[in-house]
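TODO from last week: model Purple acid phosphatase.
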Amino acid sequence: MIVNFSFFFLLLLLFISVFASSANAKATVSISPKALNRSGDTVVIQWSGVDSPSDLDWLGLYSPPESPSDHFIGYKFLNESSTWKSGFGSISLPLTNLRSNYTFRIFRWSESEIDMKHQDHDQNPLPGTKHLLAESEQLSFGSGGVGKPEQIHLSFTDKVNTMRVMFVAGDGEERFVRYGEEKDLLGNSAAARGMRYEREHMCDSPANSTIGWRDPGWIYDTVMKNLNNGVRYYYQVGSESKGWSEIRSFIARDAYSEETVAFMFGDMGCATPYTTFIRTQDESIATVKWILRDIEALGEKPALISHIGDISYARGYSWVWDEFFAQIEPIASKVPYHVCIGNHEYDFPTQPWKPDWAATTYGTDGGGECGVPYSLKFNMPGNSSEPTGMKAPPTRNLYYSYDMGSVHFLYISTETNFVKGGSQYEFIKRDLETVNRQKTPFVVVQGHRPMYTTSNEVRDTMIRQKMVEHLEPLFVDNNVTLALWGHVHRYERFCPISNNTCGKQWPGSPVHLVIGMAGQDWQPIWQPRPNHPDVPIFPQPEQSMYRTGEFGYTRLVANKEKLTVSFVGNHDGEVHDTVEMLASGEVISGSKESTKIPSLKTVSASATLIRKSESNTLWYVKGAGLMVAGVVLGFIIGFFTRGKKSSSGNRWIPVKNEET
């Protein structure tokens, strides 16, 4: 009897020992590889030993590694791995070089700890950091992670035979561009000027907070000179001591060419492979993909890109600018990338120009950046600038112009003073009055907030009225051909219009297009019309010739006889609307002719159609809306079981809005 008792006692001790060992097992996180070469390379994060796994267990990304737990770059829920219920799994993430190392941390988060006062931009609860389970070792970007140049982008200068190139590196040591007409003989070189901005230059939070601020690195700027017209040049940036970028190429502007090709859009933003404090723009991936297709199809023809405001949507979270430039580098390193300022780059409570009639319009959309990253990361032609009234340097890249082929392009700022008596008004007036219409018969004006829209954007009503009062007479008197606007995240084309009345020709009645459909996915309803109570609820006013909630971009193709603008939809990469403006003044609406770029190769839509599941099966829709207040469990289920976007078949991908 004693023997049996001893035997069972030993079994009990063994059971307790095994149970205790299992209960005390620590979770672990590992990464492979431990160093990446450049932005876009993928790391695999693996974990194991997560006891009693929960839907709310999550993985945080941190850079620099010593960041506090609530200062993450972004996060992923462990349940995105198919094996998460077994306490182990893996997630693959493409990462952007932030010029500091990364670490990855796993946290336990319970339903009782959800804090509805601690929310992201879309009012979703941010994950809690009270229970840290494990942290990985550090991930670096190799020996050249700090010094190797990235985020390369081009732009025009005021001289036709030049091309500006800008890039970012982690230190301020001397860098250069070397370039030439042969890939293996880059015989020309120019030194690059390095500059940077600091946290103290930001005007408000989150840009000047410890959560939003990250070191932006050094921004380099230089110009390639004495370029031959229409010739392909090869170039690379960097230095012998710190390393060189890959060799890129571009086609120099041709002062004698009558052809113009441009890709134009607004409000694109960027996508991230993780959820962060603000909404990011998954559809921007498709926009960049289709534009890259079009650029490569051009062969030896020059082109340009216009991004008319709301550039990265960083809104004070500085690493989003790094994500944006990494995403556009494949196109911005091939053709000049031109911008104008939007509310999400600039607006801040104490901005210098805020008239009484715009008091509710200009607010905090800039996230405290007050135009600083925009002003230093880009360098557009001209020398326009306005003081911020803060420690920040003056805001630049506000208004400027240049010629390409048969088109004169003018960029304006709707965020700073544009009314009579201001410096911008005088610039616009002088610029439009001095256009050489023999050389450039077509004039295209671009700005962020629209002068015309049928979207129910009531907050901007007074701005539109002031634009009609002060700017439209300049457009009409100087025969502007086309006015392009962003801000409203839809595509809409108006008739030739002046004073809200359709004309028959574009001289005296410019054609207006709203092209803010490149990525951002929130938009209010179309403007209701109370005198039309029947279905459809929001009938299209006669001034609006075409409008849609589809994502995409526009192509502009011109010679001295005709300017054609085509809307390309992201769901299939095909043209869905076209308007032609002839030099004679005639406007041909909805023509399907001349929608192809000269020398554009035929590409099967099915061969290049972008599907979210193919680009990255782990990228989830951002920003699920709040459910009924107080029904916490229902909210949790709705938030944590968000579905993937569907892009099967050639179906429109609608903008999120009140109609749907």
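Done. The chain has a mean pLDDT of 87.
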